[in-house]
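User: Here's a protein and a ligand (fe (ii) ion). What would the complex look like?
Assistant: Let me lay out the input and then the predicted complex.
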Amino acid sequence: MNILCIDDSPLVLKVGEKILQENNFQSLLAKNGEEGLTLLEENEVALIVLDYHMPKMDGLQTLQHIRRNKNKEKANLPVLILSDENNPEIITTLLQAGANDYIHKAWLTHKPMVFMEKIFELLGFEAKFKLCRFNKLEQTLSPIVKNFHLFVKDYFESGLSGNEISVEDIQAKLNDIDEDYLKGEFVEIIYDIVVPEDYLTVHTVNATLLTMMFTHYLNFPKSKILDMMLGALFHDFGNAGIESPIFRNPSGLEEKEFSTYMRHVERGVHIAKILDLPQQSIEFIANHHEKMDGSGFPWRKNSANLSDISQVALIIDSFDSLTFQREEQKRLMVFEALRRMKSWEGQYSIDLLEKFEKLLAEKNIKPDA
Ligand SMILES: [Fe+2]
Ligand SMILES: [Fe+2]
């Protein structure tokens, strides 16, 4: 999909191109209005990003030309003004002349996600997923979820210091939180946390709550739901003890580090067996990194031997990892994470991914803070 960028600043074009590329868009670059109009005639374009201050033909004139195009489709293309112009009158004139939206250039470098959000919105991609996960824990979580987080945190800490873990206690807690969910007492799963050291717990809590919501949505039987929640709670427990920076940022790891990271699955399964977790929980833990096309790890299974439990585990873990990374800069917005997952063809069950998307839309997960 082509995005036409018209700007007289080579730097803006370069940065814009890079961000678009990272989001799987192709860009056509024009350094002035005339060049932009020519590229528009010669190519299929999905959206135009247009600067205002340009020599000869400025953004307003270029916009007027676009809107007068004989080809109706081209004349009606979404146009996003990207300018350092702050004058509200000029911005209003541009919007009245048919620009669809405006964004200040500073966002391009400071928060490229905001720029991408505008683009997605204008392209009509799941506009309802205008969501972020940047809410602060204290402000947004219901007491039920907060308590659950603290419960998991305590359990993990005590487990790591060698204390005995009572699976029955955890199962009872999971049952309670499931009951609360069914009573409609909370829907939130999405939050940020101020203590980065707590990453594993938060990811775990997210995965457990997402699993609960998704499996109810899929009408799984209660006992299977509880087993899968238990699996989600322990799915990355094998990471405990492995040097923390490794599992926090699996992308960009050296090969040796990566094989260490991969071992967390086997270790997790091993621990689960010692704890005598139900088979369905172990299945969740064992296969949460396996992909439908066989490109996952560590067993390199594929769709032929991945059950619905494994397929759900994979979606939940990937989704939470994409939207909740330790480094805030790398976190994706909900709709963008889903879009990427869909673009990685063959890795996930498309049917389940679409259902997951519907679930998130219906739950109206907390908007961008
Ligand atoms: Fe994992
Ligand atoms: Fe995980």
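Summary: Residues 203, 235-236, 317, 321 surround fe (ii) ion (ligand 2) (CB under 6 Å).
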